[in-house]
Amino acid sequence: MTAFRETAAGRRIDGLYNGEGPASVRFRCAMMAFDALMIVFIIVSSFFHGTRLIELLDIAFGVVVLADFAARFAIARRPVRDLLHPAGIADVIVVVSLLAPLAGENFAFLRAVRALRLLRTYKIEQALRRDFALFRRNHEAVQAIVNLVVFLFIMTAVVYELQVGRNPHITNFADALYFTVTTLTTTGFGDITLVGASGRILSVLIMIFGVSLFVRLIQLLLRPPRVTWRCTGCGLSRHEADAIHCRHCGTLLNIPHAERD
Known about the structure:
Distance between the termini: 42 Å
Largest sheet: 2 strands, antiparallel
Structural class: mainly alpha
Radius of gyration: 22 Å
Number of helices: 12
Number of domains: 3
Mean pLDDT: 78
């Protein structure tokens, strides 16, 4: 793979994924839009599963994901490590689930794992921080949002797969998403509950981990904005945007206006 990276095609692909120019930024934004579109497709397709159009769209999305994965694997400096990374394994599973219709099989149990594509959201968040100052200044809040969204959709996929066909109140992805959100926020309307011991255990896990992520996000959104600026006295790296002295040791900070804005 190293040899391919040194070719003209390899350098061009590497530039699109890792470059700093306008074309690279536009390409990464297009991939972000594709990932967002795929999330919408995961939800919408649950209403029309089994139709010919959905199967064709499965294949179309699968081809794009496969091409994206192959391109990133071809330019990877450590391809084996990237392949065994959770995001890499998730991409392989997602490709299999999307291209299953080509084998003439249904593989219904693979529908839920498409939500694993959300693990790519962490790569998107890194790209946003690199490309846009707004995301760099608010990276803690962005990270908390990403954690919550990934947890929300993966848990929704698990609820959907475990309960559809068994629970009359959960017939599509939207029902599972509604239950997950009401459980995570402890609203608990009670109109949808999970059946069986596995459903109760899953509800407990959603409440324990989901509430923790939700509270963390609220804390970051409500507290005063902070910037990353290392104190020369004690090494503290996060300070309020309008701080003049380090709150820990009192050292003068001299944070540039560019970092404050």
